[in-house]
Design a protein that fits this description.
Keywords: ATP-binding, Chloroplast, Cytokinin biosynthesis, Nucleotide-binding, Plastid, Transferase, Transit peptide. Its EC number is 2.5.1.112. Involved in cytokinin biosynthesis. Catalyzes the transfer of an isopentenyl group from dimethylallyl diphosphate (DMAPP) to ATP and ADP. It comes from Oryza meyeriana var. granulata. Helix 6 (about 175-190) crosses helix 9 (about 235-270). Helix 3 links the parallel strand 3 and strand 4. The protein has a domain at about 30-180 and about 255-350: P-loop containing nucleotide triphosphate hydrolases (Rossmann fold), CATH 3.40.50. With about 350 residues, the protein is of the alpha/beta class. The strands form 2 sheets. A 6-stranded parallel sheet has the order 4-3-5-2-6-7, with helices on both faces. Strands 1-8 form a two-stranded antiparallel sheet. It has helices spanning about 5-10, 60-70, 95-100, 120-135, 145-165, 175-190, 195-200, 225-230, 235-270, 280, 285-320; strands spanning about 40, 50-55, 75-80, 105, 140-145, 165-175, 275, 350.
Amino acid sequence: MPMSMALAAAPVLPSSLTLPRVITVRERFDVAVPVPPLVVRHTAGVKQKAVVVMGATGTGKSRLAVDLALRFGGEVINSDKMQVYAGLDVVTNKVTDDECAGVPHHLIGVAHPDDEFTAADFRREAARAAAGAAERGQVPIIAGGSNSYVEELVDGDRSAFSERYECCFLWVDVQLPVLHSFVARRVDQMCRRGLVEEVAAAFDPRRTDYSRGIWRAIGVPELDAYLRSRGADDDDELARMLAAAVGEIKSNTFRLACRQRGKIQRLARMWRVRRVDATEVFQKRGHAADEAWQRLVAAPCIDAVRSFLYEDQECSSIAAGKAPLFASGNATSGNISVFASTAGTAVAAAAV
């Protein structure tokens, strides 16, 4: 069945899996700064604008995407190739309703767990979601760790997306030694949230192929040997097998993070990318970590996106002898590295 038809049909899930929750749009965003009114421009021949948030697994891409969506009026389009599947919410680390904070999220839990959702499928569905968001006067914000999906969207299909949208690329980076420690802690946290139980509930002893669909997700194949041995009487051996599986999940997750970081470094040589160094955030805990996030990640990225979205309005206001709508941020503030944007018309325009 073509993927477009599969997406239109309600998936028939294994009995051990449940349909994904519906992420609803709340009437009001629960943030201190109210979302400004939006003015939608439709100017023929002028590109609309989109934001792309990249980063290795665990670096805070979803958090930043929601921060930006709440500030500027946006909708998040998931670009994580495992989160696109229904089920295994803990394993795939899908955003919760609370984490969504009322921001509309697209392409989460839309594909059947056994299907193959390709990069071409993502390009088509993400472009459709972005067009819908733009039509509603919202900024499309693409966020996720599957950089092959993002590359296919931006550069695939003869760059149809790039012909329509000017993109602001943001890269949330964390130094590898710090990320390694954080990944290990996050896997432990996922286990406490029920990762092993979730995989056990979906386990089918007849399944031997972990190369398709959601079953490729890190955390599923690693637990296969342990789950097949659960009937054994040797509790010590089972505990050893479980510890080994969790250790393998941590190692494979960190290897994935290294590959993702390398891919982003390659893409940064092709695209104009802003890099924010979030390392200090992950070296802190609690309130100190939240303060570091606002100072080192959220604030410089908000400045960057503000300038990106509203630069034409600033130029027009200055040319007319009027004060700009906002105080411009420094283009190199915080830990941001390379970026330059060309002129274009914002999908959403308002004072912030």
